[in-house]
């Protein structure tokens, strides 16, 4: 089942995806996805993000190899945004790129989870687009706050998908389009550190809690995003996330 949250007719509602792809309201009515204001599909806890977790992406950004140990950093809740939202491109940047990422949502309080048990603590999955502003990157091993914690620079959604509905999360196609042109086309099977490995690693030194979100990295194909662009990131079986790149003028018009 796919679950989401929207604002419709002044109310915040929990919704599901209908069989025809439309949005099913709690009262049984269905509406188009453009008829609602989307929120993130749930409230998340700690947000973990992976850098350089696809070898081809590491090479793409001139890094010779992916790190032997997962390169993990944290994101604040201010960074999250929703489906069909606008993300601001600061006027002073020269390169700001999208990143299609599979988000793994933890469903149980857990510590010291073995790899073979990792999927038992996963409640589901989301599609994410974790924008990066390359101008501000000081060091690949120290992704600083200005690169990855910009307000609204990590759209997530539109759906949260039950873990039981994804037969093999390590074999999902990820794609991104800019204004209808395909830019990214990868597979979660190309992760350097798998989902079970990441859960085992994180839980080895800290407690994971329900609602914690792990953004698992992006494949190659990232490209600069300009003001006015429509960016679509899609993960097989999980969802198609639409986002728009805005400057200050466009954002003022959207509000």
Low-confidence parts lasting 5 or more residues at pLDDT below 50?
A: none
Q: Give the overall average pLDDT.
A: 91
Please compute the radius of gyration using only Cα atoms: 17 Å
Percentage beta strand: 35-45%
Helix content: 10-25%
Work out the oligomeric state of the chains in this entry.
single chain
The biggest sheet, with number of strands, parallel, antiparallel or mixed sense and barrel status, is:
12 strands, mixed
Strand tally is 19
Class inferred from helices and paired strands: mainly beta
N-to-C order of helices and strands = EEEEEEHEEEEEEEHEEEHEEEH
| Shape annotation | globular
- The number of helical segments is 4
How far is the N terminus from the C terminus? Answer: 31 Å
Question: Please, could you describe this protein's structure?
Answer:
- It is a single chain.
- The protein has 255 residues and is mainly beta.
- The protein has helices at 55-60, 145-148, 195-203, 248-254, and strands spanning 2-8, 11-17, 23-24, 30-31, 37-39, 47-51, 71-75, 80-81, 85-88, 96-97, 100-106, 122-129, 132-133, 154-162, 173-178, 181-187, 213-215, 230-235, 239-246.
- The strands form 3 sheets. Strands 1, 2, 3, 4, 5, 6, 7, 8, 11, 12, 14 and 17 form a 12-stranded mixed sheet that branches. It has a 5-stranded mixed sheet with strand order 9-19-18-15-16. A two-stranded antiparallel ribbon has the order 10-13.
- A hairpin with a 5-residue loop joins strand 2 and strand 3.
- The radius of gyration is 17 Å and the shape is globular.
- The two termini are 31 Å apart.
């Amino acid at each position: 089942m796919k679950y989401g949250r929207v604002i419709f007719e002044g109310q915040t509602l929990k919704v599901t995806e209908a069989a025809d792809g439309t949005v099913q309201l709690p009262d049984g009515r269905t509406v188009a996805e453009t008829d609602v204001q989307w929120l993130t599909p749930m409230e998340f806890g700690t947000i973990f993000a992976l850098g350089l977790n696809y070898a081809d992406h590491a090479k793409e950004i001139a890094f010779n190899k992916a790190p032997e140990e997962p390169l993990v950093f944290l994101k604040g809740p201010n960074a999250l945004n929703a489906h069909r939202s606008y993300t601001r491109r600061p006027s002073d940047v020269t390169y700001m790129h999208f990143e299609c990422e599979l988000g793994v949502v933890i469903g149980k309080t857990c510590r010291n989870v073995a790899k073979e048990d990792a999927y038992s603590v996963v409640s589901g999955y989301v599609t994410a687009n974790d924008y990066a502003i390359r101008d501000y990157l000081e060091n690949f091993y120290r992704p600083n706050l200005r690169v990855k914690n910009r307000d609204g620079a990590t759209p997530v959604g539109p759906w949260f998908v039950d873990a039981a509905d994804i037969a093999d999360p390590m074999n999902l196609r990820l794609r991104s389009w800019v204004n209808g042109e395909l830019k990214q086309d990868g597979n979660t099977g190309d992760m350097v550190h798998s989902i079970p490995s990441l859960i085992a690693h994180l839980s080895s030194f800290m407690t994971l809690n329900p609602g914690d979100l792990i953004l698992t990295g992006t494949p190659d194909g990232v490209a600069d995003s300009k003001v006015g662009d429509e960016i679509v990131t899609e993960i097989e079986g999980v969802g198609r996330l639409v986002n728009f790149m805005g400057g200050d003028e466009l954002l003022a018009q959207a509000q």
